[in-house]
Records
---
Amino acid sequence: MNVTEREEALAKRGRIKCVVWDLDNTLWEGTLLEGGEVTVRPEVVAEIRRLDEIGILHSIASKNDYDAAMARLRAAGLDEYFLYPQINWNPKSSSIEQIAKAINIGIDAIAFVDDQPFEREEVEHAHPSVITVDALEIDVLKHPAFEPRFVTDESKLRRHMYRSDAERNRIEQDYHGTSEEFLATLDMKFTIRLAQREDLRRAEELTVRTNQLNSTGRTYSYEELDELRQSPDHLLLVASLTDKYGSYGTIGLALAERGKPAWHLRMLLMSCRVMARGVGTVLLNYVMTRAKEEGAKLRADFVETGRNRVMYVTYAFAGFTEVERDGSRLVFESDLSTIQGWPDYLTVDLP
């Protein structure tokens, strides 16, 4: 990837969600398995910590001995920064694919730092949308593509939330029982509330970062959301989730336009981190209930983005049918004759 191609790929602000690091002669100077002492590069450590503070995640793709590499990272106080590290002898492209799958982000949201041109080219060949960075050029990580417009309280806690997710997933894998029985052990509480001004930075961030569980793919600015929040003709809702392991943070957003004979759901999105928690329809069901209480039907916008097929299925299972289609743009409608409840294992707190 030449300079021009990289600049084009980096054009979208806040695009990168995770930086994947090589180890030998990248994160540290030297080669671990050749028996010599390796020295962690202080400028790399500073960059890892800076990006972590603004909500950028980190992982590792290194051809190395797992136990030896993790021991060295622990000795440097760095092991906690890396999610789902892939330290093995597989192609780096395969490791990056595994990281994206584990974190549940698009492959195009990853940047890969490595000192070897061959390794960078191997990744570029397999995943052309991954941003590759020479280990000697880490100033690239200061590009606006790595800088979210807002740094929220949740941005600073993102790594910890993902580590809690990893712990939940580990426990679930060892659980002997059905998925619903496991979910019932989590003591989950789903909270829906009217959006307040202090919610809007995170709300904007959700519209930018959420792809798979986003009904339209549209982004909204802080200013747009603030105007809609104050509009008597609109209902702007945010949702959060907690369980016995901690908070998932603000994970859902809905924007409904009130009207007669139908309300219009302009946006519905949910963080991919809660996809497996059985809570995906709770916010939709609440909007349906509110519309029905006002004697209206409910229409819902949907725009096919290539990633959000799950949202199409969500509307279909909730009893919506297509009433309009213009290319990739659809409008669903429900007469609200049937509204599903939420699972017994979930406590729901409503506004």
Note: The first strand starts at residue 18 and ends at 21.
---
Amino acid sequence: MSNLYDALASAIYVSRQTLAGAAIDTDDKRIRASGLYEDWTEGKYQVDDIRNANGQTWECFQAHDNATYPDIKPDNPAWFTFWRPLHGTSPETARPFVPVQGAHDMYRVGEYMIYTDGKTYQCKQDTNFSPEDYAQAWEVYDG
């Protein structure tokens, strides 16, 4: 995620928002700025820290230190107790589907994601289920 193109596109986006007096204060805006966020590494994290990992942009919602809790890392079940994936509200900011762990990371009406079948879906009603598990909550985005 942190390649030069992503960083440049993110820098331009953030600059335009700043000039317009707008804050980077929503999941969608944070995803658009994701090229400027660091990739996750072991360390000490505070609430609201944002990092990229596994093709997704994540927000820390519970402070922790990997020196004390080494199991808190991407691809480990403990990760989801401390980090939530950001969800885009446009097809352009759709990120890979992440199974929902609780109310803090459920998909909301109007959010988009890319499912395991490679298709982009729009959430039609708040849900903690995938398109396979609860199809009526999702609609394939055809562009």
Note: The longest strand covers residues 56-60.
---
Amino acid sequence: MKINLLIIFFTCITVLSFAQNRNPKNKAVFLEDISWTTAQEILNENSLLVLPLGAGSKEHGPHLPLSTDFLQAQALADLVALERNVVITPIINYGFYPAFLKYPGSTSTTFATATDMVVQVIRSLAAYGPKKFYIINIGVSTTPPLLAAAKILAEDGILMTFSRYDKPAFEKAEAVIRTKSYSGHADEIETSNILSIRPDLVEMKRAVNDSSMKAKAGSMTPTPIEGGNLNTSGINGYAALGTVEKGQKNMTSFAIELIKEIDMLKDIEPIKGKDRSVEFKDYEGIYTNEKGDLKLEISQKDNILHYILNDRDLRNFFHLYKDGTDYFSSMYINILFIRDKNGKVEKVWCRNRGEYVWLEKK
């Protein structure tokens, strides 16, 4: 497999920047390339979906593009596509990257938004049948939100797992090219990867070796800011040591580990969601405002909580998902159930398309 992937890598890299130019040897299907009718045919309980996740705009030193994570996620997805019959979704290109926000052009969502984005994208796709999802995770700060998302989805009966740089297998894959023990960001590894993917976007004359963040944690800053860690380059590691050849080897080794985990996920039995039928009884009922011109009806069926808002019946379209203790969301509505001192639900805080109201249980 390793030799095949390395050969394939050389043939793929010239078309990576053009998503519409897929390799005819692909075994995978890219969701963005097909129609909804074709999606209807291939999305079912036997489908395994792969979601690449990489920041579309995040600093990676003065020598690499802001899209460095995105490009790595894209390249790895293309390598997986050549080896496995999976469905690959569009890249999730925003997420939780707070450490880099002092560098112009870098973007980040909040922790909650990053978690919710993954949860909601996967819930949408799971509604068509698939219950197994694998995320190609290009990031470190993305791990905690993904762990939170996986826990939420598991209670819905959806299995989601993802790649992690701190797993021994992936650490070993990166060790194939690492020549210095210290690395972490926009370093020898990432520089090599982008040189092998999009050399036209790399300015090696500006690549420097920077270990100023060694043994430090927290947000970096390009200029002195109280409470921050000064790092004028935005690099953690030895970027000047990057080469095309190292990048080709690393991307191949990393893709092999991704494929191993995807294969393991395929073999895992589907999981059952949490039985909430007893828990949901607390929420059932009719809630109205003081004027009586707004009515929310909450009911459950088949372990799913539904709602009717002002006689608008959306039970066959958008049910309520539990996202936290007494907190639920749906396409149009967010609901927080409030309990009295005896633990009985007495009212709800309801946000309906941006409008906030309090409703009392009748």
Note: The two ends are 64 Å apart (CA to CA).
---
Amino acid sequence: MPFETLLNSIDPADRSSFEKTLSQCERSDAVATEFRTALPNERWLRVSARSSRLDGHSADVVIGVLLDVDVMKRAEFDRQRLLRRLGEAEENERRRISRELHDQIGQTVTGLLLGLKKLEQSIEATPFYSSQIDKLHWLQGLASGIGRDIHQIAADLRPTALDDMGLHRAIEAFCAEWTRRFGINTDVQLLGPVDRLPLEIEIALYRAIQEALNNVVKHANARTVSLVFDRRRDELRVIVEDDGTGFDPTKLSRSGLNASRLGLSVMEERLALLGGALTIESEHNVGTTLFMTVPLAGKDAGA
């Protein structure tokens, strides 16, 4: 089949990548790629091909095997759409619960603190003031602690900084609070433009960084964490590195690391839905480094 005839049978959106892949045949033993056929009978196909010199031909020809993967690809697309909808539903529910904690329960606790303060003022003149004041102060401290916990839970569920100021400021605020809570030094470097990204990217990366730092607390026994957020023209890179105990990445499936494996799987899934990837490097008694990448080409900024 002439090459132009083959190209004309491929969806225009996939022709460039198909042609680029087949051009590599001369430099490698075999290549493989997936593409859609042209309308009206669009189907997903996978081709495995290699370059060869056949008898009777004056030039090399490409010999390929086509496999119909349409059912598998469309099932994967359906799965990805479902995961996106589940992710959106999860974030909406997080936002609703966070708002209710802040606006309703938080206000109730504030009212309780005001009531306790008035009670303190009203019993100052009573004969039993000195014996009751310690109990009252204890109740005030308890109510204040409940208020702080509610505020922290609401922020963990859905940080207002992410909605109001964007991913950069939300990361800075989260890392500062994380350092305060757990006493692990955090070095944050934010490189590149600071304008807003699409909301789905901001949420996915924020959750991935959140999960990465939570894993450090649970498993790493680290003293210092370095986070580099590097935004480039067509790609966003995030590097999270700790100086903790480390582990063998090839043994993540073992029962002792199941909890960590689950968290990493969630991170991988979030990034994969954006066309991104997660790479893990770790060594015992040296530490762990996570490399996250998300493509930005063709992404419109905005919330």
Note: The domain at 3-68 is CATH 3.30.450.20 (Beta-Lactamase).
